Amino acid sequence: MKKINLSIDGMTCSACSNGLEKYLNKQNGIFNATVNLVMANATIEYDEKILNQEKIEKFVKDAGFKSLGEFKEIKIEKKGKKERITFIFFTILAILLMYISMGFMINLKPIPYLDPHANTTNYIIILFVLTICFLIYGFDILKNGYKNLIHKTPNMDTLVSIGVVASFLYSIYNMYLIFAGNHNQVTNLYFESVAIVIYFIKLGRYIDGISKDKTKEAIQKLVTITPNKAVLKVNGMEKVVTLDEIKKGDIVVSKAGEKIAVDGEIITGKTHLDESFITGESKPVSKEIGDKVIAGSMNYDGYIEYKAEKIGKESTISEIVRLVIEASNTKAPIARIADKVSGYFVPSVIAIAIITFLGYLIIGQGLETAITSFVTVLVVACPCSLGLATPLAIVVSEGLCASNGILVKKSEILENAQKVNTIVFDKTGTLTYGRLKIAEILNYSDMDDKEILQLAGSIESKSIHPISKAFTDYIEQNNIQMLKVDEFENVSGYGIKAGIENERYILGNAKILEKYKIENKHLEEEKSLSENGNSIIYVVKDKEIIALIGVNDIVRENAKEVISILNKNKIETIMLTGDNKKTAEKIAKDIGITKVISNVIPSEKANTIKNLKHEKRYVMMCGDGINDSPALASSDIGVSVNSGTDIAMDSSDVILTKNDLESILNLIKISKKTIRNIKQNLFWAFFYNILMIPIAIGLLKPIGISINPMIASLAMVLSSITVILNALKLKKLY
Question: φ, ψ for residue 200 (rounded to 5)?
């Protein structure tokens, strides 16, 4: 199976995207196709033995659209001057058409030589010409509608197209009768209905296009946030280059007031960087040698040189854009339900319209009434608002999440986060900052403490576990020379193994002693260190314990407040850690977590998550390390802090770029409001159709309530505008 992401041209509304998606999913060799109207792209999973890009692009063309090749960037097509002028021009024509055709109904003075009774021929010709102009203006609607009808995937455009063409042909027939001498048929012309229906649909799409572009602006800002040029240091000289010229390993210079050009690591200097665009943190962050820098960050006050590490598509910015686009390209279950309902709804409306048409003929109401009612039913039932209800709310929410430091990989997370009733937290690096410090050392060897910490620090420097930072910081702060380490091995969930000067060492928790059958004579000392909130590292040389090191962590500033809010909302919180029981329980007690599962290896973490799910719980796991990856993947929703390892972030569904646990509360809050908003949108869309279809059929004529195609098209647009405005309310969450 292969996946391709194509940029699609020609989609103007949800009817287009839904029609293309249905058509692609019907084709042999395509496993799954998801079309995104907002991003104007289609993600297609296909069998490469049957299809290739050329064949897939032909499917797109057959459906009435155009492939622009592989999707590369987000384009915000602001309503240009030409489009605005065109829209204004047709607005004037629409007003003129309404005045000519209906002005006499409200006693307005007719335009000279265009009186429907005194100058019938002129009147008919001008209406006909203006209507042809509107048919050309709305040709994309007619083309899309009939293509989808041919492909057996009728949509909103199909309803409008059938109604418009039926009304136009009926008016042409009556125009022939008038020219044949039957001037009484002048009241049976519906050219203005054809034109105004098209105009109102175009009006709705114009407004929809503006709102659609607004939902992409936050993402587009990320794309353009990096500078156009950078300064490289080559052989001691500074050289100005474009970003495309930078290669991995190049030394890049950044001075106060300049932006960081690419992701990298500082090798010279120190400064403060503004990373608020990615982390949401308004305060400048202090950076020095060894710290990572992110492209787009603003250098406040220092001179630094940094080594380029991630360029182009590998950069943090590109990764965020990719994640947001991929999330937009997935569909929440509630969206699939709406699509399914829409699939049945459109054929049902066509059937109702045909029955209405035949019904009026059977009861002797005449062809005029039958066609008018037929067209009105088709237009009024056009469920454009139904097509907008879910995707617009989802995209607005995804943009809201991204701007608040929450990267959601799949849109279904926005629907499911509000279901969470159990959150499992890793300890180190998640509930704590992971900024550990060496608090105490119990030395059982003939080496001094400095030597013990030198060899332990040299070995730990090869590890990516947060606890290793305490040792490397100690070595740097005390100017201790690193020893040469060989045969390094990470023993996942237990600790690490390595060799120094032909001696074999093991560092890890108490479980590593059990794994390698090493006798532990220091349980009391471990207990004492643990009671003081230390994580315990055993240092073993040739199966003999030579030291016990206590390392302290710092609990995140708002961890206690977040846990308290979760508990108040009846969401159970659990600490799941590989650390010892005493240390874990002390930290858990301090922040308000009552259930602690400690001394677990990665597979046990994953099994714990699975057991909780078997209890019919909806589980969110929040972690940051390699040992959390299985648990993140096993949970209903895996959440990784941005400071975590790449593998942890790859295994998660959500990444918290602010490294702030409060983002979990925000995610749940956004999820709840998103689902509420979607339900409101769907209610109004269905309520509107349920209410208006009986009126369009004419069931309320006995009590004086009826509508014509023009009023029906206006009502349809107002319904869509209501849904758009309701979805945009989500932006006011913060």
Answer: -65, -35
Question: Which tens digit of pLDDT belongs to each residue from 44-57?
Answer: 999 989 999 899 99
Q: How far apart are CA 468 and CA 278, in angstroms?
A: 26
What is the CATH code of the structural domain delimited by 405-431+556-668?
A: 3.40.50.1000
| CATH fold of the domain at 437-552 | Calcium-transporting ATPase, cytoplasmic domain N (3.40.1110)
Tokens of 378: 């088709």
CA distances from 631 to 79, 609, 628, 711 (A): 47, 6, 5, 56
Tell me which range, 342-351, 618-627, 631-640, is most confidently predicted by mean pLDDT: 631-640
The yes-or-no answer to whether 2-70 and 437-552 have a common fold is no
- Residue 546 has a pLDDT of 94
Largest distance between two CA atoms of the chain: 120
- Which of helix, strand or coil describes residue 486? strand
CB-based burial label for 680 (10 Å; 0-12, 13-18, 19+): middle
Per-residue pLDDT of 276-320, as tens digits, reads 655 544 457 788 898 888 888 888 888 999 999 988 766 766 666
Catalytic residues: 426
Residue 340 confidence class, pLDDT cut points 50, 70, 90: low
pLDDT (tens digit per residue) in 535-578: 889 999 988 999 999 987 778 888 999 999 999 999 999 999 87
CA distances from residue 477 to 452, 462, 466, 571 in whole angstroms, order as listed: 16, 18, 17, 42
| CATH class for the region spanning 2-70 | alpha beta
C-alpha distances out from residue 269 to 111, 223, 304, 311, Å: 78, 28, 5, 22
Q: Are 36 and 324 within 8 A, CB to CB?
A: no
Distance CA 581, CA 527 (A): 9
| Cβ-based burial of 716 (10 A; exposed 0-12, middle 13-18, buried ≥19) | buried
Residue in this structure with the two tokens 């999973």, named with its chain if needed: 45
What is the third-level CATH fold of 229-314? 2.70.150
Among the residue ranges 112-121, 212-221, 527-536, the one predicted with the least confidence is 212-221
Q: Which residues pair with 595 in a beta bridge?
A: 574
The C-alpha torsion from 670 through 671 and 673 to 676, rounded to 10°, is 170
537 has which bridge partners? 549
**Full DSSP string of 401-440:** HHHTTEEES-THHHHHGGG--EEEE-IIIIIB----EEEE
What single letter denotes the amino acid at residue 1?
A: M
Q: Provide the pLDDT for residue 10.
A: 74
Does pTM surpass 0.70?
Answer: no
In angstroms, the CA 682 to CA 688 distance is: 10
**Would you list the domain boundaries of the chain?**
2-70, 81-219+325-396+678-733, 229-314, 405-431+556-668, 437-552
CA 34 → CA 123, 415, 446, 495, 650, distances in Å?
A: 48, 18, 66, 44, 22
Q: Which amino acid is at 453?
A: L
pLDDT tens figures, 182-206: 877 776 677 877 887 788 777 766 7
